[in-house]
From TrEMBL:
Keywords from the named record: Coiled coil
Positions of the Pre-C2HC domain: 130-206
The protein's name in its UniProt record: Pre-C2HC domain-containing protein
UniProt cross-references to SMART domains, sorted A to Z: PRE_C2HC
InterPro entries: Pre_C2HC_dom
Record Pfam families: PRE_C2HC
Coiled-coil ranges per UniProt: 22-49
Length: 206
């Protein structure tokens, strides 16, 4: 009987302690809620006051200043290049260009704009290498600027109006020579690259 009474007293004391703890927790929760509400009110009041101050404060214009330093720099041109002992400047510039010399002289620009002497070689095979033609003409004393094969577009089916076209290489070559005194001598050439040829002048446009 004494043991049963002791257990009952212990259970009652534990239950009382649990109830007291629950009451304490509820009180703490209530205090936290009250503090939170007060804090929210203070924040809203501070925001309202700050917005009023911003709206009531006068707007000050922002001035942007830009300073530019003015400096004067004189650029001196390099002295001209002179070559002693040169009598024929045009011939010198042709040789420089033939040797693929690099330069930016005004005389070189003027020379490049000069009209080339053009002729047509008839009778060579279309597959002849333009470099071979250029080399043989150079051995004959001509300064060759360019050699190109003449090509035309031809219909695959001549009877069909909408037929596709193909490129046909002709046994004709354009030869552009640098202006020289012996340019007319190219018309006297009868054999070139193991072919019997005929050199003609280009047709004049009507």
């Amino acid at each position: 009987m004494q043991t049963t009474a002791f257990r009952t007293d212990v259970d009652a004391s534990i239950w009382t302690q649990i109830q007291n703890d629950n009451a304490t927790l509820k009180q703490m929760v209530m205090e936290l809620r009250l503090n939170n509400e007060k804090l929210q009110l203070q924040i809203s009041e501070m925001n309202a006051v700050g917005s009023k101050e911003i709206l009531s404060s006068p707007k000050k214009p922002i001035k942007v200043t830009k300073e530019v330093a003015k400096t004067s720099v004189k650029i001196h041109k390099p002295p001209p290049i002179t070559v002693c002992g040169v009598n024929d400047l045009k011939k010198l510039m042709i040789n420089l260009k033939f040797e693929e010399a690099k330069g930016h002289e005004q005389q070189m620009k003027t020379l490049a704009n000069e009209k080339k002497f053009r002729a047509v070689i008839r009778g060579l095979h279309p597959e002849t290498d333009p470099c071979d033609i250029k080399n043989e003409l150079s051995e004959l004393g001509h300064l060759v600027y360019n050699v190109t094969n003449i090509q035309i577009k031809k219909k695959i089916d001549p009877n069909n109006k909408f037929s596709d076209r193909t490129i046909v290489r002709l046994p004709l070559f354009f030869v552009d020579l640098e202006p020289q005194a012996n340019n007319e001598d190219i018309f006297k050439i009868k054999n070139l690259c193991y072919h019997i040829i005929k050199v003609e002048s280009t047709r004049k446009k009507k």
